[in-house]
Amino acid sequence: MPVLRDRIPRRGFFLGLALLAALSGCSSTDTFEQPVPVPEIEASVEFERVWSMSVGDGHDGDFLYLAPLVTGDLIYAASADGELYAVATETGEVAWESEFEDRIFSGLGGDGQNLYLTTENADLVALSREDGSEVWRTSLPTEVLSSPQSNGSLVVAQTTDGKVLGFSATDGEKLWQYDGSVPVLSMRAAAAPLVGGDVVIASFASGKLIALTAASGQPMWQYEVGQPQGRTELERLVDVTGQPLVIETAVMVVGYQGKLALVDIRTGQEIWSRKASSLYSPMIGGGQIYLAAADGEIIALRGSDRREVWTQDRLAWRQLTQPMVYEDYLVVGDFEGYLHALDREDGSLVGQREFDDEGIRVPAQRLANGNLLVFGNSGKMAVFQVKPQD
């Protein structure tokens, strides 16, 4: 289950993981269950490793989401203890590595010139893509868990207390700030903002999706993904923690105890919606929508009418990552560090591999060459191909 945070004004405040894991499964619609054991399957596909390496101590025991940044020929990766790497996508050869003096709190964002990250002390830092050297840094009001995002001229960071801030990509000058509202209790996770040329779209723990002008941070529209219901703060959780998925002139978004919806990116008008509860963005492939529900079910929906095609419940409550489409398969990771491959046609479990005994929290990423990049909580990073067994 995801870790929760409450609004105590203290940076880096962590609540007890075991207690919160139990609490976070409780809601007005879900009953907390223990994660099912790793299912025994008859595997027909395998995860064939192309290359692997270690990125420092990974999340180093903290509840972070240090997703690597993939940019064509290079993968940029960071660990909480300050190790930075630029790695060749094809071979895993290290192009450069750097020791960062601060503790890192967010995954990497980037543009054509710089990489961007945030620190435990709530600094936004720009680094050179050439060698990882520091270009500029600026202070933030409080901690940021999601990766800063940039359109090349504007860098946007979203704090855990609901502030969205825009900075100049050139020198870090603060350009604007939007103050969103957040509930007393929320998940210890946050969606990275979407940053386009004219619009910034931010997701909030209040269940709101809000579009801001990139030039000034002024609100353009807002959409309610989830509406708090119930008497307790736990029942009223409606966090949107997955980055919205852009589909031409619309965005697809899902919330915890909320809904899955397609929204017009220009106006915020709902195109369609259906009830759903998830902490990760949906995935699209072959005309279908794939969703890892908060209770561990994986659901395939027909894109044309959102009717269920299949549901896989053999990974219940295993804290699954966002599904990733790989050819005829769907790949998810879980809290015990297993990778699972599902047949996209019927959702059956067809492959399995233990990857990182500290767990997998960051969703797998598809590389330009078609391979699969996986980053584990301990800092293990590897590229796989998913193939039928010989």
Overall pLDDT metric? 90
Number of strands: 34
Q: Report the CATH C-level class of one domain.
A: Mainly Beta
Biggest β-sheet: strands ordered side by side in the sheet: 2-34-33-32
| Shape annotation | globular
- Which class best fits the helix and strand makeup? mainly beta
CATH-defined topology of one domain: Methylamine Dehydrogenase, Chain H
β-sheet strand percentage: 35-45%
Going by CATH, the architecture of one domain would be: 7 Propeller
- Summarize the biggest pleated sheet: 4 strands, antiparallel
Alpha-carbon distance between the two ends: 36 Å
If you compute it from the alpha carbons, what radius of gyration comes out, rounded to the nearest whole angstrom?
A: 20 Å
Helix content: under 10%
CATH homologous superfamily assignment of one domain: YVTN repeat-like/Quinoprotein amine dehydrogenase
Membrane topology: Lipid-anchor
Subunit structure: Part of the Bam complex.
Subcellular location: Cell outer membrane
Family: Belongs to the BamB family.
